[in-house]
Sequence to fold (412 residues):
Amino acid sequence: MNINATLIGEAIWFGVFIWITMKYVWPPLAKAMADRQKLIADGLAAGERGKNELELAAKRSADALRDAKAKAAEVIAAAEKRGAQMVEEAKLTAKVEADKVVVASKAEIAQLLEQARAELRDRVADLAVAGAERILKREVDAKAHAEMLVALKQEL
Amino acid sequence: MASGEALTTSGYIVHHLTNLTVGHGFWTVHLDTLIVSGLIGLFGFVGMAKLASKATSGVPGKMQSFVEMLVSFIDQQVKDTYHGKSPLITPLAITIFVWVLLMNAMDLIPVDFIPWVLSMGGVHFFKSVPTTDPNLTFGMSLTVFVMMIVMGFKVKGFGGFMHEVFTVPFGAKLAPVNLLFRLIEDVAKPISLSLRLFGNMYAGEMVFILIALLGLWQLPLALPWALFHILIITLQAFVFMMLTIVYMSMASESHG
Fold:
């Protein structure tokens, strides 16, 4: 065990290596590690945020879906109601129209009946005149009896 | 192998424990220790610096992951133990751990290999494990000691430091006793730090040399000892680093 100048040399080496480590080894590595740590932390935070946003979006889409469904149901109900109403209206209109047609038909029938009656009256009058001519076997003045015939016609 | 003439057991051992020296007296320099520790250190730290200069905060490569793991492990140890603000402590701890670990690992190269290669180049003495040289361990521990003192002055100021030296732990009335205690405590730190590392590695190397003397029987023995020695290599590097951190934290915190 002989202590000599080697000690000084080794102390110098030691100093040189401490200097290298302090200047060129530790700071860049520490920085790289700290940066990576930050990067990872940011990434994790971003992931968390993304997850939250996804959850929010899912909730929003579920809400929108529910709203749309509710609205659709409303629209369908309104349409059904309207449809029923329209059918009612149509029925009503048809009934009114049918009534009108019935009334018009009845009027026409009545008119036709009247016409037929009038014709019939004329014919009956003629028949009566003819009958009377044959019965009386003489010339009857149609004009003289016209008045009586008209009165007869009125009676029919 | 020994230079050829007298291949005795003690001759072989002494040969393996002799440094390659230049100079006389105090100014003797152990070239082997200086060169091996320097080359290993340059390899380790310049390599790490190169890697660090290309370090990315994105997905790290395998080497970067490895170095980051090591470095952040050491940084965690520093954070757990040292509560001061000096930016020196983590680099210091990294330097100690990596350098001592690499130098200790030289122990795993078979004891005769490097001396044998170099003897062909005319170099007859070579101790290839720098940490078995007390000059290196004392060089490191005394540097740590100086840093410790400087740290004490920086954090507490001259007055605070002197106050602590003379009043802790028994109060101002027993100032001489306190001073004596403090001296023993502080002197014991670098000595225990360096002798622990030196003793462990020297003994480990010695066992390797003794195993190498067994001829063919060294094969089944060298492997388990080398495996066991991996533990010692790592442990001693860790202990040196950890104690340095503890001493630095003690120097920057109040004792009382």
Summary: Residues 98 and 104 of chain A are 10 Å apart (CA to CA). Helices of chain A lie at 6-136, 142-155. Chain A touches chain B through 33 residues (CB under 8 Å). Chain A has one domain: 8-155.
